[in-house]
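Query structure, 153 tokens:
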């Protein structure tokens, strides 16, 4: 069975690992989580005629990572959430969506060429079959300058 886990950046800019949950709630507590009250963490939706009978209730949405092996959760930036690909690089580091890898790409009879690539979901998987001896060299959130580079053409 495939291991499904995710990661996301918390309010301090540190990676959190575990499973992700989209939470819907009313009455966001700014006292408990003042640092999360912005568009990177929460979205708000006005709902008219909700079940509580209010004419203009606010529904809030946010994402939390429930940490591996713990009962605790932490808010993460929704645009940094990436799923584990189930692949590891040549150094044993787990590869997540948004990671930037460098390695040899198999061009068939033409041989291998060294490339840099950003990991994205393609609907049918992560298409890692044609890569060899690759390693994670960064990610699009902390190292965006690496995302558009190529080692060779």
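Result returned for the query:
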């Amino acid at each position: 069975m495939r291991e499904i886990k995710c990661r996301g950046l918390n309010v301090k800019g540190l990676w959190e690992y575990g499973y992700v949950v989209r939470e819907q709630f009313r009455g966001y507590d700014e006292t408990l989580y003042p640092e999360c009250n912005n568009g990177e963490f929460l979205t708000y939706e006005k709902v008219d005629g909700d079940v509580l009978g209010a004419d203009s209730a606010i529904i809030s949405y946010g994402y939390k990572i429930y940490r591996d092996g713990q009962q605790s959760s932490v808010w993460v930036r929704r645009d940094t959430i990436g799923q584990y690909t189930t692949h590891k690089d040549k150094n044993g580091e787990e590869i997540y969506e948004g990671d930037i890898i460098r390695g040899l790409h198999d061009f068939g009879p033409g041989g291998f060429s060294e490339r840099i690539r950003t990991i994205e979901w393609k609907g049918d998987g992560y298409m890692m079959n044609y890569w060899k001896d690759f390693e994670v060299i960064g990610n699009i959130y902390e190292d965006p300058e690496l995302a558009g580079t190529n080692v060779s053409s």
